[in-house]
Amino acid sequence: MAKGKDVRVRVILECNSCVRNDINKESRGISRYITQKNRHNTPSRLELRKFCPHCYKHTIHGEIKK
Fold first, then answer.
1. Which of 22, 19, 18 is nearest to 55 (CA)?
2. Is 35 contained in some domain?
3. CA–CA separation, 11 and 23 (whole Å)
4. What is the total count of domains within the chain?
5. Each residue of 25-63: b (16+ CB within 10 Å) or e?
6. Is the dihedral of CA 38, 44, 46, 10 positive or negative?
7. Which of 3, 19, 24, 31 has the fewest other C-beta atoms within 10 Å?
8. Is residue 16 a part of any domain in this protein?
């Protein structure tokens, strides 16, 4: 049985401030989280405020393409 488009999809959230600063010299990399979203309830890109261990603070993490 072939799987169609699922309602709940897996998304990757990436720190916006690490990406914008092109990984400044103090940070060691880019923070990424994996989560799920309901495609029907949130058709737009997901943005959550999560802790970034590279920036040492809570920042906005946005959805990226796989």
1. 18
2. yes
3. 22
4. 1
5. eebeeebeeeeebeeeeeeeeeeeeeebebbeeebebbb
6. positive
7. 3
8. yes
Q: Is residue 41 part of a domain?
A: yes
Secondary structure of residue 16 in the 3-state scheme: helix
Q: What's phi and psi for 26, nearest 5 deg?
A: -75, -30
Could you tell me which of 14, 9, 17 has the C-alpha nearest to residue 36? 9
**Residue 58 is part of which domain span?**
6-62
The sign of the dihedral angle between the CA atoms of 52, 60, 63, 9 is: positive
The yes-or-no verdict on residue 42 having pLDDT over 70 is: yes
Q: Is 13 helix (H, G, I), strand (E, B) or coil?
A: strand
pLDDT tens digits, one per residue of 7-39? 899 999 999 888 666 555 554 678 899 999 998
User: Is 57 part of any domain?
Assistant: yes
